[in-house]
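Hi P.,

Sorry for the delay on this. The queue was packed all week, but I finally got your sequence through. Input first:
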Amino acid sequence: MISWTPGDRLVLAANETYWGGKPANSGVVVAFVADDNVRAQRMRAGEFDAAELAPKLAAGFDEQGGYRVQRVPTADYRGVMLPMDNPVLGDLAVRRALNLAVNRQAMVTGVLGGAGEPAFGPVPPSSEFAEASVVGKPSADPAAATAALDAAGWRTARDGIRVKDGRQAAFTLMYPATDSLRKELALAVTADAKKVGIKVTPEGLTWDAITPRMKTDALIMGYGTPYDPDFVSYKLFGSAFAGQGFFNPGSYRSPATDTALQQGRDNADPAVRKAAYAAFQKQLTADAPWVFLTYLQHTYVVKDTVAGVTPRVEPHEHDVANSLWWNVQTWTRKP
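Then the structure:
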């Protein structure tokens, strides 16, 4: 490390005696830019050789000479975490109605610019453990959503918002303010929910403000791994981890889910594990503690002068080791 300015940049020099071989370049400068739009502006200004951008921002470089857009397949999903202790979202009928009301395909087309696919659970379609029976309609089903709310006693008031026992079908949906993609997803969910009489108030916040409210307010979250389902789902949906930070922040508890996850963890037999994770996915669909929205393609913009970039399937947590930068030591600039 040559220098590090917290929140600004990290300057690294090549280790020419590295056991794996001398790097192909002399060093790397990593800039820390949290805001998506600022990152795009600085990329367009020529400050960076490569940057990760939200899909719609990256698409702006498709027709711009001197750049190429890398759309990388992932197991990274976005969804709405629904806290069980919220007085509205604690109602299973509301959670199921939200799952029926959202138009996932429209989100893929409009918000992601086509860089993704609809999501119906935490196990990616590419996984051998994916359960096909949990896949629903990519488009919205407002008639089914309305029927679910009607059956549960949620009646439409004069203002169009449903009410039950004097309480409005209304909740706050948080998202990190600097994440333009999650903001757009929050707005899409808000619009779809309104069509069936559920009032959603989107609120962009810092993570410091979001964290203490996760037990009672909904949140646009992201997780996902292309590896074994146990890696993330055991903690994210297991009762033992309810309310523990970002693992199961909505305090979802289900004995059936716990049993299935434990069976998947404890067994080595592929058939037993496949059955366990199928049971897990079916129970999660029945309980609807999340509204799964989309799987993403991670989108990067790279200057045409950069060579050696080698994409591979990425998880949600795509830091240096798990992102486009995984082999940055082999990157070079074309003359």
